[in-house]
Amino acid sequence: MTDSGQDNMADDLTQLSACDAAAAIASRAITARALAEAYLARIAQRDAAVRAWTYLDAAQVLAAADAADAAPMDGRGPLHGVPVGIKDIIYTKDMPTSFNSPHFQDYFPNIDAASVAMLRDAGAIIMGKLDTVEFAVNGRRAATKNPHDPSRTPGGSSSGSAAAVADAQVPLSLGTQTGGSVIRPASYCGAWAMKPTWNAVSHEGFKVCAASFDTLGWYGRSAADLALLADVFGIADDAASAIDTLHGLRIAFCPSPVWDRAEPATQQAIKTTIAALTAAGATVDTLTLPTAFDGLTAAHGVIMQSEMRSAFRAEYLAIGDALYPELVDIMRNTAGQTRADLLKAQNLAAQCRAAFDTLAAPYDAVLTPSTPGTAPLGPQNTGAATFNRIWTLLHMPCVNIPGLTAADGLPIGVTLTGPRFSDRKILQVAALLGPKLSPPPV
């Protein structure tokens, strides 16, 4: 085979969805090593431009792939031989976890996070670690560039996780969200992503920021890929749904209390999505939230910063003012937040969670923006979590659906959400809506 033919084969394998790759390995149409080699070649070709990875050992990856190929067919898991990238705040027993912090560059926890352990149990190849904003909060930015335009941000904090999947450097990746750190990068980079219901997947083994918001999420090449990881992580609704058409579904468009911050690109994305739903036979209503919800963005800030003072106390005692300035201000509570402020914010959040479950119950899904607009110029501006914080605080499942392109040529996503623990139903609706928003293959 010519070098050109080998390159074409590698390109073909990196275009497989995780589901298709898993099926091809299971049927022995391809080997885990061939798939790993294809992704390593893609990374070698694109890493200088995208810079998604903080740790990648090709020999380690190939050894794991060879072990996967040598394993007996009986007992293989659903991800057998499929590479997965891991956000670099999530512990991996055989790789460093640096949090993109200058204070933890040699940190090696020697254990797997619960999520990584479940991936290994399912047969996944842990490809490497993906860049993040420092501590997945603020401070030092990821070196990662937006794969569609290197002058633009990939978003934060799961910068490398979104960019690597969007750029076909890995079929699946893990991220985390405390404000908008899974959904926002997905919209900016044009990737499928899921933030499940809070605490539906174990938090054990990744750097805590705000424990009542922190949520493990993931990226894939399709809705089916997201569902594949949902299976691995044991995500289930009480009542199984069998939605196979958009026709007859009831969808609510929820502008949320911050709709006035939607830029023209987001406004058009919502209009286009509503038109696609309507054309497919769905009914779309507007869901205006009660005025109490107007206070949720501020409540998110109060709760997050209060919990950060607990989560980062050990680091602050050890490192002090050498932490980045914004974190130092939070640790010193320069905003003057009181416990009374925290109780008020927590009570509002609890009330609105129950209220939204009731408001959303009559609908099959709720449509809302993923981001204010397309990716802003980077690297310091990682974009705003304006349209994400409310859903993170409310603990609702969210799926970013890619496929739309704004006037500036950049991708822009939309979000489907719904009541807590309606994750699988939301995924089913997203799987049907996705093809309506994506251009036909060339």
TrEMBL record:
Domain Amidase: 35-427
InterPro entries named in the record: Amidase, Amidase_dom, AS_sf
Pfam families: Amidase (PF01425)
Region named Disordered: 142-162
Source organism, top-level taxon: Bacteria
GO molecular function (one): catalytic activity
Record's protein name: Amidase domain-containing protein
Native organism: Ketogulonicigenium robustum
